[in-house]
Amino acid sequence: MTLELETSEIINEAQQTEMASDQHGEIGAILIWRLSEYVYPNKLGRVFNAQTSFKLNPTQPARMPDAAFVRAERLPSWNDAEVAFAPDLAVEVMSRNDDWSDTVHKARSYLEAGSKLVWVVDPYEQNVFVFRIGQHVVMLTPPDELDGHEVLPGFKLKVNALFN
Question: pTM here?
Fold first, then answer.
């Protein structure tokens, strides 16, 4: 059972009215695969799946992004517990039942806690929204390319690779 704490209230994802779709899961898997094939050969850090809990800070809920990356110099030793800080890159894939304002709040909470880059993937409109500290949110569409910016220098991925 997966639990996520939101404003002192436990949300039991298994009891939500709508579970994540096959498309949601596949997009998360594609991102983890493509990030991993770039990160591990270049020894840049670690890639995490949606089962990894990040404790953003003492006043915010633990989050479980659909995919995440942490740079090598920030990696703790294995501790078999939630990660005690925000990932450098957090990825959220929207589900049909997700509210846009809640998703934006979640993306901003990653940035406020120390994430440098957040990608929000909207499979229904086939867009990716890029959140960065001090920058306007950028919307990418299928002809565009995701960029790892300073978090993953040199990483590129065509947006349409997520939706084909």
Answer: 0.85
Pairing of strands 117-122, 89-93: parallel
| Helix ranges, the chain (H) | 22-39, 100-113
> At 9, which amino acid appears?
E
- Whether residue 46 contacts residue 39, with contact meaning beta carbons closer than 8 Å, is answered with yes
Amino acid symbol at 80: D
The answer to whether 93 and 101 are in contact (CB under 8 A) is no
Of 43, 48, 85, 40, nearest to 65 by C-alpha is 48
Give me the residues of the chain with pLDDT under 70, please: 1-20, 76-80
Residue 69 in contact with residue 39, Cβ under 8 Å? yes
Enter the tokens of residue 53: 């809990």
Closest CA to 103 of 128, 82, 134, 70: 128
> Average pLDDT of the chain?
86
Beta strands in 25-96 (DSSP E): 45-49, 54-55, 62-63, 67-71, 89-93
Q: How does pLDDT run across 62-83, given as a tens digit for each residue?
A: 899 999 999 999 886 666 677 8
